[in-house]
Design brief:
The structure is a single chain. With 425 residues, the chain is an alpha/beta fold. The chain contains 17 helices and eleven strands. The strands form three sheets. The protein has a seven-stranded mixed beta sheet, with helices on both faces. Strand 9 and strand 10 form a beta hairpin. Helix 6 packs parallel to helix 8, helix 6 packs across helix 14 and helix 16 packs across helix 17. It is globular.
Length: 425
């Protein structure tokens, strides 16, 4: 009995020491936690803090974040809650039927509880129509991309308590209807994917991710490039693929599941990944593009969507600017919007239905105000008075025409810009 007791004590001692040994020596390679995880700062010993007791508090907080096997213990805890109670620790995540994972805002987008209202949507479509016409006069194009939403694509797996619609209207339905009625250039991937849902040989939307699948992204790229070629009336390089490989989830195809930090996988969903390539015809036009959008656009960039274009800019949520060929990130507020528009051929705005209440993230208002002169601190009468003076000066008007040609904008737009400049100076 004594021998057995000694072994028991020894075994328990090892168990107690294992976290300390793992923290110090990292004997086992553990999968790190994913999601909004922050690494604590190392606490440096300071005598004054030790006397005041703040050092001990900081050290406790650090130890709670760094002790050995912490990630494993968290995964075990999360797995028990998920398996027994269908509870998750990730904020805003909803577990649907068949373990289909949603973010809550995609469900509210589907049931219409986030509906903006008729007045705001009418204002949005009016501004987009004005912008479209202004760009068209300059030989530029505006293209709106309605990316698919998880709730709209998989309504059959949404838990019953979320299936009570608070509105007969949804932002997606009303905005897509307005885009069609106004004759604006747009692609409705929500409808496109829904129509293909039972026909596609490959999965378009993964059960455990929030974005379109790798195969879905390839279909989207093919569709967008063909539409750009159509609305510009010129040949551009398009995409193709010669092989398709089945594989476990790549890219963002199980990004929600990763954020749950479970011990066991939710399933072995096999997804299709085309080996996407791009044409390189010497006679193809290579226009420049500016895209304002959400995270759905990152997947396209990861598949080199920018390759057929001479220059590609991505304004992520209209906050961070990413330029092709550059690793630096620029604050969008520091960029001259007029100059950027003048050097761009195609402007793309992309959003999933969950983000439609914030479509453009301020870009649409900014561009509308710029093109209409409404961001000026001067009244319309003041601006028109200067414009009338310019029109009576033949030499000045010739300069206006030359500047308009150089900037590739209309003479009327150049008149407004020169008039504002004169009032400011």
């Amino acid at each position: 009995m004594k021998i057995k007791s000694k072994y028991t004590y020894f075994f328990l001692l090892i168990l107690l020491l294992l976290p300390f040994i793992q923290e110090s020596l990292s004997l086992f390679k553990l999968e790190p936690l994913t999601g909004a995880i922050s690494s604590p700062e190392l606490t440096k010993f300071q005598k004054q803090e030790w006397i005041e007791g703040t050092y001990q508090q900081k050290k406790d907080e650090e130890n709670n974040q760094t002790f050995g096997f912490r990630s494993t213990f968290i995964r075990v805890h999360n797995q028990i809650n998920f398996s027994l109670f269908k509870k998750v620790s990730a904020k805003g995540v909803i577990v649907g039927l068949n373990n289909c994972l949603y973010e809550e805002n995609y469900i509210t987008a589907w049931n219409g509880s986030d509906y903006l209202g008729d007045e705001k949507i009418d204002s949005l479509s009016t501004k987009l129509t004005f912008i479209n016409e202004a760009l068209k006069r300059q030989g530029k194009q505006l293209l709106i991309l309605l990316a698919p939403g998880k709730g709209t694509f998989y309504p059959e797996y949404i838990p019953m308590k979320y299936r009570i619609s608070t509105s007969k209207k949804t932002n997606y339905k009303e905005i897509s209807n307005d885009l069609q009625e106004k004759g604006l250039n747009y692609i409705d991937f929500n409808k496109y994917f829904k129509d293909l849902k039972t026909k596609s040989p490959y999965i378009l939307y993964p059960m455990h991710g929030i974005h379109w699948s790798g195969y879905g992204m390839c279909l989207a790229i093919d569709t967008i490039l063909k539409r750009i070629e159509q609305i510009r009336g010129t040949k551009i390089n398009k995409c193709y693929w010669d092989t398709i490989k089945y594989d476990k989830p790549r890219y963002s195809d199980n990004d929600i599941e990763k954020g749950l930090n479970l011990l066991l996988s939710l399933g072995k969903e096999k997804l299709a990944y085309p080996n996407i390539k791009y044409q390189n015809s010497s006679d193809a036009e290579k226009p420049s593009i500016l895209t304002i959008g959400d995270s759905f656009y990152w997947g396209l960039l990861n598949l080199h969507f920018q390759d057929p274009f001479s220059k590609s800019s991505f304004w992520y949520y209209n906050r961070e600017a990413y330029e092709s060929g550059s690793s630096s990130v620029i604050d969008v507020s520091q960029i001259d919007l007029l100059k950027k528009i003048n050097e761009t051929d195609i402007i793309i705005i992309i959003s999933t239905d969950a983000n439609l209440p914030k479509l453009g993230w301020g870009f649409i208002d900014n561009l509308y105000n710029l093109l209409s002169g409404k961001n000026s601190a001067f009244t319309k009468d003041q601006i028109n008075s200067v414009i009338n003076s310019i029109r009576t000066d033949q030499k000045w008007m010739e300069q206006i025409k030359d500047k308009a040609k150089q900037r590739n904008i209309t003479i009327d737009s150049m008149l407004v810009l020169d008039a504002i400049w004169m009032l400011k100076h």
